[in-house]
UniProtKB/TrEMBL annotation:
Regions of compositional bias (Gly residues) in chain numbering: 85-94
Matching PROSITE patterns: DNAJ_1 (PS00636), DNAJ_2 (PS50076)
Source organism (scientific name): Qipengyuania citrea LAMA 915
The protein, known as: Molecular chaperone
Record's compositionally biased regions (Basic and acidic residues): 18-41
Domain J, first and last residues per copy: 7-72
GO cellular component: cytoplasm
GO molecular-function terms, A-Z: unfolded protein binding
Length: 318
């Protein structure tokens, strides 16, 4: 299908009210189809690839797209009519060009007029032959080649791996695998940029954008940089105290309970939480939960005739 090379919308095959997402999607599809590496024996594909890239460069720039839509610049980003509104000589509103006549110069006096100064004032250059300032009569400034599109990845990370910053293996779009080092302060939604791991483009490859998704754990929970954990203990352990084995993200550790420990007591294990951006680590907060035995007959016999006279709800005002 033939396209109008002066219309970047037609070049990409999108409507004039296309969204940024639609424009990017159309470019990626055409870039894959027309990329020179896939069309080494087809020079026309290479030419179309260049036009598609130039069209995307213009439409992906919000300011230039707006200028093109208003008719201020052409598809190459050059002023569409640099002499509009000057009157007299130059480009007419209807197109075409005529030379300067003596009557056109009325108001300038009888002195010699340096047209180079006029062009310099208009375009900030060194006259009609171009130079700094980008005069439309000079050599057209070429834009830097567009890099390839970025590729988005979503990486699911186990809770404990995220807490301990265990490297994660990820498979890229080209089939290659790399071991990704998680950053300090990693959390759900953290984005990591992999330089040069995106799609190939005329100006080099884009980047890979990895979004981290931390899986929930069956009994650990994250609170800021700390890890919370509810530890069940027996009535005997609560009354008599002793050492108990406690799971942490770094592996199990032994923790000592004082005799007479109440349920709901929170104990702190230093440095067993997530790594902060500073490199230090949060803690693990262990909440004790007293669990009664499944069979209460023996316990009831031992407590026969004994009654706890304390009032644990007195502070609640009930």
């Amino acid at each position: 299908m033939a396209t109008n090379s002066s219309d970047p919308y037609a070049t990409l095959g999108v409507s004039r009210n296309a969204s940024e997402k639609d424009i990017k999607s159309a470019y990626r599809t055409l870039a894959k189809e027309l990329h020179p590496d896939r069309n080494k024996d087809n020079p026309q594909a290479s030419e179309r690839f260049s036009k598609v890239t130039n069209a995307y460069d213009l439409l992906s720039d919000k300011d230039k797209r707006a200028q093109f839509d208003r008719g201020e610049i052409d598809a190459d980003g050059n002023p569409a009519n640099p002499f509009a509104g000057m009157g007299g000589g130059g480009f007419r509103p209807g197109g075409g060009q005529r030379g300067y006549r003596p009557e056109d110069m009325q108001g300038f006096g009888t002195e010699d007029v340096d047209l180079g100064d006029i062009f310099e004032g208009l375009f900030g250059g060194r006259g009609p032959r171009g130079g700094p300032g980008g005069s439309p009569f000079g050599a057209q400034q070429r834009r830097a080649p567009q890099k390839g599109a970025d590729v988005a990845y979503r990486l699911r990370v186990p809770f404990i791996d995220a807490a301990t910053l265990k490297p994660q293996r990820i498979t890229l779009a080209d089939g290659k695998t790399i071991d990704l080092k998680l950053p300090n302060g990693v959390e759900d939604g953290t984005q990591m940029r992999l330089k040069g791991k995106g799609e190939q483009g005329p100006g080099g490859p884009g980047d890979g954008l990895v979004t981290i998704a931390i899986d929930p754990h069956s009994f650990f929970k994250r609170h800021d940089d700390d890890v919370r954990f509810d530890l069940p203990i027996t009535l005997d352990e609560a009354v008599n105290g002793g050492k108990v084995r406690v799971p942490t993200v770094d592996g199990p550790v032994m923790m000592t309970l004082k005799p007479g420990t109440s349920g709901g007591t929170v104990l702190r294990l230093k440095g067993k939480g997530f790594t902060r951006k500073t490199g230090t680590r949060g803690d693990q907060l262990v909440t004790l939960e007293i669990q009664l035995p499944d069979t209460l007959d023996e316990l009831a016999k031992r407590l026969d005739g004994w009654k706890d006279e304390s009032d644990p709800r007195s502070k609640l005002g009930v």
